[in-house]
Amino acid sequence: MKVGDLVRVTEDVRKEWNDPDHQWPDSGVIVRNHHPKRRPDTSQVFDVLWDTGEVEDMYVTDLEVIAETR
Known about the structure:
Layout: E1 6-9, H1 11-17, E2 28-33, E3 45-50, E4 55-59, E5 63-67
Antiparallel strand pairs: 1-2, 1-5, 2-3, 3-4
């Protein structure tokens, strides 16, 4: 994953949260990589700008790419 990728929260995270009243954003764009020099196989953290307008720190393991930037 990299800055500019379109992402969404994984289905596993949605199930784990287990709150039927929680409204998950449909999609978001990665706007910042907290540790760009960290190896990809480590737990990376990204700032995601969600379609709700909120920016949230997210672990790479909680996200899936919908569309990649070039």
